[in-house]
Structure to design on (373 residues):
């Protein structure tokens, strides 16, 4: 990619038309789907540790309403559990972590408004809580040893720490031409490089969190995955393939340079559940306490459970907006901001065409982990 991922990978900030805050309904639905699992884990952590001060860390918090869904959900759960046990509610310290390019300013500018809203909803005094921003990559240590009670991460662990090195030869020749992710036309060596990068990254993630979790600590992690054992197949290969198609069309029209597009690959990998389990077992530090897999339509505003597409043009535009909110900074860094509107207009049309043939859904993995005893 010719750049450090942590310097460029972040959601579109602010609250504008193309911002993540405006276009993150897929992620919001995942947070609500995972809520029962988060609640169970938080209650168990509190009952086990009975802390006077509790530390909760949200890894890959991004910005916008979704950030505060997690914060206030945790406050409600811990407050309720302490009352059930006849104990005063603990102080809660929230660490909100994301890469340095994240819009942390937006988070803290809007915090007071969300706090007022919470007090109005509860109509009573809320437990004391504190919110701290922690910029940095979660593929490494972020916190002191044994300092965190609960880790949460949603829609983040499919992003890798780097583009896998195997997408180019030893002398820098692109080996995954006309693709931006693994596909049916990717070589076995490229696929293997993605798989190995995922294994390294998830291993580092688990080892780091083990060092940071205290007594009774737990994690709930939600991320995109695939149900097929064959890595180049599946919904996410299709999703990114349609964006690659738009980029390659712009090459043919002389808008983009072929060399740049051929060298562009995403730091992304959607694992199978078998791969997730294999890394957890190999690391040997956590028990897999609970696993859920649910489906979510590509179109974030389509909440139907059937296979009918009601308006493929609008759905294509909705998908393009949601993907743009996530990937725009990476695209702009590689190809320039001037191509963004053109590219995502083409992408919307490609997605609309695809949805006429097949209503496609994401597979969202939710796993709960606890430290082995």
């Amino acid at each position: 990619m010719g750049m450090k991922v942590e310097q460029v990978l972040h959601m579109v900030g602010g609250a504008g038309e193309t911002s993540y805050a405006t276009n993150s309904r897929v992620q919001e639905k995942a947070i609500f789907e995972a809520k029962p699992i988060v609640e169970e884990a938080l209650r168990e952590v509190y009952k086990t540790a009975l802390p006077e001060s509790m530390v909760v860390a949200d890894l890959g918090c991004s910005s916008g309403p979704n950030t505060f869904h997690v914060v206030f959900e945790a406050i409600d759960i811990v407050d309720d559990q302490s009352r059930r046990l006849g104990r005063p509610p603990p102080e809660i310290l929230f660490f909100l972590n994301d890469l340095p390019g994240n819009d942390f300013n937006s988070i803290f500018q809007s915090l007071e408004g969300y706090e007022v809203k919470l007090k109005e909803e509860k109509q009573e005094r809320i437990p004391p809580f504190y919110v701290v921003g922690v910029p940095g990559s979660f593929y490494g240590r972020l916190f002191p040893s044994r300092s965190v009670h609960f880790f949460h991460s949603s829609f983040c662990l499919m992003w890798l720490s780097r583009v896998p090195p195997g997408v180019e030869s030893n002398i820098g020749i692109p080996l995954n031409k006309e693709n931006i992710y693994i596909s049916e036309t990717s070589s076995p060596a490229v696929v293997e490089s993605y798989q190995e990068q995922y294994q390294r990254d998830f291993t580092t993630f688990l080892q780091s969190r083990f060092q940071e979790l205290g007594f009774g600590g737990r994690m709930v992690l939600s991320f995109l995955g695939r149900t097929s054992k064959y890595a180049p197949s599946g919904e996410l290969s299709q999703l990114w393939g349609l964006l690659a198609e738009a980029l390659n069309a712009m090459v043919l029209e002389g808008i983009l340079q072929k060399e740049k597009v051929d060298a562009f690959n995403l730091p992304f990998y959607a694992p199978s559940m078998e791969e997730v389990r294999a890394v957890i077992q190999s690391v040997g530090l956590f028990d897999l306490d609970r696993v859920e897999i649910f489906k979510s339509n590509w179109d974030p505003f389509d909440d139907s459970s059937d296979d009918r597409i009601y308006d493929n043009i609008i759905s294509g535009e909705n998908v393009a907006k949601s993907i743009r909110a996530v990937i725009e900074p990476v695209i702009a860094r590689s190809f320039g901001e001037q191509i963004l509107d053109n590219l995502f207009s083409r992408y919307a049309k490609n997605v609309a065409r695809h949805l006429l043939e097949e209503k496609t859904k994401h597979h969202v993995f939710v796993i709960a982990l606890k430290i082995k005893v």
User: Anything to note?
Assistant: The mean pLDDT is 87.
